[in-house]
Amino acid sequence: MFFSRHLYIVILCYVLLILGVAGTGLVLIVTHTGIIIGCLIIIISFFITGALVKRLNKSNAKLKLFFDAIEDKENMIQFNEYSGDREMNALSRSLNRINELLATAKSDSQKQEKFYYSLLEEIPSGIIAWNSEGKIILANSTALSLLGFEQLVFVRQLKQLYPEIRDFLQQNTVQKSTVIHSIGKRQLSLSLNYMKLEPETITLLAIKDISNELSEKESESWSKLTRVLTHEIMNTIAPIVSLAQTLSARPQTDEKVTRGLNVIREQSERLMEFTASYRHLSYLPDPIKKTFSLTTALHNLEILLQSDFETAHIRFTLHSIPNDITVEGDEKQLSQVFLNLLKNSIQALEGKIGGKIEINLTRCEKLRIYITDNGKGIPPELQEKIFVPFFTTKTEGMGIGLSLCQQIIKKHGGNFYLQESQKGKTVFVIEWPETP
Hints:
The chain is an alpha+beta fold. The chain is 54% helix and 20% strand. It has four domains: 5-107, no CATH class; 123-209, PAS domain (Beta-Lactamase, 2-Layer Sandwich); 213-282; 290-432, Histidine kinase-like ATPase, C-terminal domain (Heat Shock Protein 90), CATH 3.30.565.10. It has 14 helices and twelve strands. It has a five-stranded antiparallel sheet. Strands 7-9-10-12-11 form a five-stranded mixed sheet. 17% of the residues are buried.
């Protein structure tokens, strides 16, 4: 208690003393027995009243200082508990005890807030929250990365950059979700909810990258289809080849028939070879991972393709930050990925003067590899199809190169996508989700 029983007794004594002194002075004045003395006594009662007010004001001043400190969120203030004034010491002890409780509660609240923030940073989904004025009060790093922001202050930044998000947020429903396209050909799932925290409403936007999920389902479907097709075609063609060989080997067979059988056999064998090439899509072995220098592996590919670069008058450059980057993966499979991409770039630069191919490796939280050429680019209407098995823009291609590359990267836990492609610049990106 701020005011002890002793303080109540002191105040009561002060009041009784003031009343007694003032009453005595009034009696002396009224009875004319001692007007001057009566006036002096009344003046003394005023001084006694002032002393009481001053004593009470000391408590009020201390309480005001305490509440001002709380309002300013300052918990470091300490009151003197050994001033010689019994009542003030008791009040100081009580205020200091409350101060300690508030400091403990504040510390616990900060720890809990830090825990929840760390938890939000660890979840794979992006979370953005804003108040009724549109000011962002929370945006975890996943959300900023998915949407390509370094910092978000107001929700209007989202609406200006992404019309699809603006349209989604303008829908008049309490809970809603949708799928939109975003940076790097990703597909994002959005979910919106509202939280009532008096006196305002907080809007929560959850963002999830579902590109890998959709791509995995699509790849699985293609793999199943490829297995069925290769099995059926091989089982059908193999007997035809065998029968054609047997019939053409008979001595009594007519020459024209023999030539026809040889044509059937040759075409059937080509079809079998063509079909066998697609088995790579459905029977890709798991990577045998070991730690190796990716920078060195790329330098080796540069040496391997040096004659191709010189023949096509292409300038090849490799940049690595840091200078030597090591990864954990299947060196043979990953080398095949980069070899395929480099050959694609060489073909894209065919007949171009001043052709350039660049590979840039950067490691900062994630490992990212950018493969860039200044070739003719990929038409916008075809960019969505380049990773689909059997689709090719080449007259002699079979359409398994980029699809196979994507499967290999996914088996390594990474992501492979076309960042941009226009006339004069095509950029493919390979990224690992975390530093190996």
